[in-house]
Design brief:
Blueprint (H helix, E strand, L loop, with lengths): L2 E4 L3 H12 L4 E4 L23 E4 L5 H11 L3 H8 L1 E2 L4 E4 L1 H14 L3 E4 L11 E3 L7 H11 L3 E7 L2 E3 L8 E3 L10 E6 L1 H12 L8 H7 L13 H5 L27 E7 L6 E4 L8 H8 L10 E3 L2 E8 L1 H4 L12 E3 L9 H19 L12 H10 L26 H22 L2
Parallel strand pairs: 1-2, 1-7, 2-6, 7-16
Antiparallel strand pairs: 3-5, 4-5, 8-15, 9-13, 9-14, 10-11, 11-12, 12-13
Helix pairs in contact: 1-11, 2-11, 2-13, 3-4
């Protein structure tokens, strides 16, 4: 019986391609051109909706490192991107339609891949890879909910993430509210003057426009549908002190610099077990990325913060992968069912494609009686795999590739460009050794 791959986006095409390379037949289901999501317009596979850029090419960047790992694993996406690239400085940008056409042609020409033009409304039996993306159709989403329970989300309200290394340690401090429990939170204390300057910048900052279908989802005039995921800038507009009685409340906190309670406090919570990344608690936002950098850098201690991910607020269907998936991208409770792409909680085009590679590779290995591959944690794909499958994660938000999720180097390299280059070279060397050992 052929493996069923549902969805011919970047992740689904990569999964099908890996299966075919391993000599395993599959059926690739795609509901276009009979039915489109609100965001998709083109009939071809691997449609790029938001941008023609597949991020940086430089190996010493997170995206460049990830794409090089994909190339070494036989990615069809990177092959087609190289064929259709357009000038974009240091980024890999493509002609979107030409790129889609190239992937579609490659997939349809492969004899072991059978393309089925129909919508899948229920999870099939047998060996299945679900790669339906952040706009999974409602009937299939309901079927997924049947196995995921409440671990299926229909919106993405994510706060920014910064590196611990970039924080101003003279202005931030660890403390628990009322000194209860461990001092797990990093606190950024405002005085009144600093708070008012931040508040005025926040309420006047420029928001990113919502697409029409996102307006219908979140509420046409300001995210009324999901009160619990309200953007921080919308909350601020309700009044000067609203944040001080919400996520910025200073009650129970003493600033060690002054010995007094601050006027307001922003708290940061560790995003990973290594403590290299911190989430700005309560700061889900729909501000444009440059505005986030400008305004949130006004928070005491974040003056030079390095943002590994900006906050987002958009329609997104994804599962609570840490509770459901292994690092091989299959269900812990149903090992023949794999997920790939943004529905797993990886954020971005190339990240989705990379997860498709791993789902296809591991489905093929499973069918041949071999152990699944979980790449070293020093590789970008390995780090992302572990991020989305960490069962100790208390709160889960989608994550794109970034250097902050990788283990630190044993030696301290102050020059960031050299440090990132060294981290990337270490990961690629470890990838080559791992693949040699697991042929």
């Amino acid at each position: 019986m052929a493996v069923k791959v549902i969805g011919a986006g970047l992740a689904g095409c990569e999964a099908a391609w890996q299966l075919a390379k391993a000599g395993i037949g599959c059926e690739l289901y795609e509901m276009k051109p009979h039915k489109y999501t609100p965001a998709h317009k083109y009939s071809g596979f691997a449609e790029l909706v938001c941008s023609n850029s597949l991020k940086a090419e430089r190996i010493g960047s997170a995206a460049g490192m990830l794409k090089e790992e994909m190339r070494r694993l036989g990615s069809v996406v990177t092959e087609c991107a190289a064929e259709t690239k357009v000038s974009a400085g240091g980024a890999l940008a493509v002609d979107r339609e030409a790129f889609s056409d190239a992937v579609t042609a490659r997939i349809k020409a492969e004899p072991l891949i059978t393309v089925v033009d129909e919508e899948v409304t229920e999870i099939p039996d047998g060996e299945v890879i679900i790669a339906t993306g952040p706009l999974t159709s409602d009937p299939l989403a309901e079927s997924i909910r049947g196995i995921c329970g409440e671990g299926l989300y229909f919106h993405d309200a994510a706060a920014p993430i910064v590196t611990f290394e970039s924080l101003n340690k003279e202005r931030v401090f660890f403390a628990a509210r009322y000194d209860r429990g461990d001092a797990d939170y990093i606190n950024c204390a405002f005085d009144k003057e600093e708070y008012l300057a931040f508040y005025n910048a926040l309420i006047s900052a420029e928001s990113a426009p919502l697409k029409e279908f996102e307006r219908e989802h979140f509420g046409r005039d300001g995210f009324k549908v999901y009160e619990g995921c309200m953007p921080i800038e919308v909350l601020a507009k309700r009044g000067e002190d609203t944040m001080r009685f919400g996520p910025l409340k200073p009650v129970g906190i003493t600033d060690p610099r002054t010995g007094r309670r601050p006027y307001a406090v922003v708290q940061l919570r560790a995003e990973n077990a290594q403590g290299t990344l911190y989430n700005i608690v309560g700061f889900q936002t729909n501000l444009r990325f440059p505005e986030q950098k400008r305004v949130f850098s006004m928070i005491p201690g974040l003056e030079n913060a390095e943002f590994m991910r900006y906050g987002v607020m958009h329609r997104n269907t994804y599962i609570n992968s840490p509770k459901l998936l292994s690092a091989a991208f299959n269900m812990r409770e149903r090992e023949s069912l794999f997920f790939a792409g943004q529905i797993t909680g990886v954020e971005g085009y190339i990240e989705s494609a990379a997860s498709g590679i791993m789902a296809g590779l591991n489905m093929a290995r499973r069918l041949s009686g071999r152990d699944c591959l979980v790449l070293p944690e020093t590789t970008m794909i390995g780090a992302l795999s572990r991020y989305i499958s960490d069962p100790t994660a208390e709160s889960f938000q989608p994550m794109g590739c970034n250097m902050g999720i990788l283990p630190e180097l044993p030696e301290r390299i102050r020059d960031k460009q050299l440090r990132y280059q060294t981290i990337a070279e270490r990961g690629l060397d470890d990838l080559d050794k791992y693949l040699e050992q697991n042929r």
